[in-house]
């Protein structure tokens, strides 16, 4: 995709409100004026830096002017945008298309969301269930003689386990010791 087509695609994004401020536009125009080969002449640079015109108008005129000049001029604009407004450069719609143009490539942002959509409470709930099942299986195993130790642990844990759950577990352990 040529830089002119990319610039045409990004034009609305760049000219929308509060994307680029006065200072960033002035820096970009100055860089395009001073870079070798000179992209903007001194007269053109003054026209696009004129504070009497609105920022939206100046930026729109600059982008249209660069598209008329050709692909090299548009490429230099993208280079100036990357230097002077890197965050905005990274958020450009054409950059996002270029990043995800490979169908075999994994979109890491989407994958990260898919892996982390449940949060820490879900993890703690699953861990608690797994730990409870492990303790239950360990206590129910007939080969182990840990009923006395398990009763002591459960007896001293009213803070960790609720009183009702603790009482049910104690009754279960008493029944197990009778059998």
UniProtKB/TrEMBL annotation:
Localization: Endoplasmic reticulum membrane; Mitochondrion membrane
Keyword Disulfide bond: yes
Keyword annotations of the record: Disulfide bond, Endoplasmic reticulum, Membrane, Mitochondrion, Transmembrane, Transmembrane helix
Domain of life the protein comes from: Eukaryota
GO biological process: regulation of apoptotic process
CDD domains linked: CARD_BinCARD_like
Any Pfam family matching the protein: CARD
Domain CARD: 38-96
Transmembrane annotation, as ranges: 120-138
Membrane topology, record value: Single-pass membrane protein
GO CC annotations on file: endoplasmic reticulum membrane; mitochondrial membrane
Family matches, as InterPro entries: CARD, CARD19, CARD_BinCARD, DEATH-like_dom_sf
Subunit organization: Associates with BCL10 by CARD-CARD interaction.
Protein name: Caspase recruitment domain-containing protein 19
